[in-house]
Specification:
Number of domains: 1
Helix content: 40-55%
Shape: globular
Order of helices and strands: HHHHHEEHEHHH
Low-confidence stretches: none
CATH class: Alpha Beta
CATH architecture: 3-Layer(bab) Sandwich
Mean pLDDT: 98
Strand order of the largest sheet: 2-1-3
Radius of gyration: 16 Å
Distance between the termini: 30 Å
Length: 199
């Protein structure tokens, strides 16, 4: 069965008041994400070993296999974007008590977490992602991955939040000023309810 572009969990205009305009969402979801899905389906159709596998299985199978680099790039980006859309909300920015307590325990404070996340996001050279993960040691960590990679592939931990730092995610709204995009994302867009549910 072919992979499909998931519907956004909100309208394309729903995040505009929080710093992500309708045009950004229309292009990012309808063009960029859709292109990854289309390309992935083409790769799967041409490779019997991939047919019938879940997206997660394909991401893990194709990671670090140079012969499957195209598969990984598109499967990884499809998975990353599924998470990304769920990681934002028109009512974003508020951190539930259970998650706040865990953040305080593992980072020292909410501000220390945001500083660590912003550092990961802004020091990712070129295209990539910043993540809040639950590590195998049970501790929250901020990490980053290049291009279409992710903690599912690397085995670093369970993803709670992922922020896209490819320029197409923020250029219309913040031009080339990635730090401002990340600040806005953490304070106005991030769906911490989703992150808390992953715990």
């Amino acid at each position: 069965m072919a992979f499909e572009l998931p519907a956004l969990p909100y309208s394309t205009a729903a995040l505009a008041a929080n710093g992500m305009c309708q045009e950004t969402l229309e292009l990012h979801h309808g063009k960029h994400h859709n292109a990854y899905v289309t390309a992935l389906n083409g790769f799967v159709a041409g490779n019997a070993a991939l047919q019938g596998k879940s997206l997660e299985e394909i991401v893990k199978l194709s990671y670090s296999d140079t012969a499957l680099a195209g598969v990984f790039n598109n499967a990884g980006q499809h998975w990353n974007h599924i998470v990304f859309w769920e990681n934002m909300s028109p009512n974003g920015g508020g951190i539930p008590g259970t998650l706040e307590a865990k953040i305080n325990a593992d980072f020292g404070s909410v501000q220390a977490f945001k500083d660590a996340f912003k550092a990961a996001a802004t020091t990712q050279f070129g295209s990539g992602w910043a993540w809040l993960i639950l590590g195998s040691d049970g501790k929250l960590k901020c990490t980053k991955t290049p291009n279409g990679s992710n903690p599912l592939a690397t085995g670093e931990g369970k993803v709670l939040l992922g922020c896209d730092v490819w320029e197409h995610a923020y250029y219309l709204d913040f031009r080339n000023v990635r730090p401002n995009y990340v600040d806005n994302w953490l304070n106005k867009l991030a769906n911490y309810e989703y992150a808390a549910a992953q715990l």
